[in-house]
């Protein structure tokens, strides 16, 4: 498991999983095959194929999800505004970024189709939203594919989990998270 300073990932009791310790005492039990990159405020967990795991948030063709902290949220809204889940998705850009699956196309995100709360470990409820994304030609004339951007936001801890790849099992991993006391 590759990790940067301030991120701790180590084998759990079973060799098939690893414990990923994140900011605020949040610990996730993840498959040992997943790889972790970044710093305490911008952690990418690569869950499959990824050509450039150290790339930025909009790096295409990288099966992964992100765990963002307060510094990343300061300009995580569209147009680099402060992230606010009631105002829109995590989208730290002022232009049309590349589609997650194919950089030949850009992507846009619509209004949330699911809004509610989800448990992230015992006693922690996250604002949960699913934002529909469309991959389009850069002139906006043709839609090529779709995706969903799922977000779990913990306002007290200032932690945001963003998943553009519909990572299998991520909702269960977050529900079973452990918080240090």
Word description of this protein:
With 181 residues, the chain is mainly beta. Helices cover 6% and strands 43% of the residues. It contains 2 helices and 12 strands. Strands 4, 5, 6, 7, 8, 9, 10 and 11 form an 8-stranded antiparallel sheet that branches. It has a 4-stranded antiparallel sheet with strand order 1-2-3-12, with no helix packed on it. A hairpin with a 2-residue loop joins strand 4 and strand 5. The longest helix has 6 residues. It is globular.
What are the defining features of this structure?
globular; 181 residues; disordered N terminus; eight-stranded antiparallel sheet; four-stranded antiparallel sheet; mainly beta; 12 strands
Discrete helix count: 2
Sheet with the most strands?
Answer: 8 strands, antiparallel
Give the radius of gyration.
16 Å
- The shape, in one word, is globular
What's the order of the H and E elements? EEEEEEHEEEEEHE
Low-confidence stretches: 1-6
What is the strand and helix layout of this fold?
Blueprint: E1 8-11, E2 17-21, E3 26-31, E4 35-39, E5 42-50, E6 62-68, H1 70-73, E7 106-109, E8 114-119, E9 125-136, E10 143-154, E11 159-163, H2 170-175, E12 178-179
Antiparallel strand pairs: 1-2, 2-3, 3-12, 4-5, 5-6, 6-11, 7-9, 8-9, 9-10, 10-11
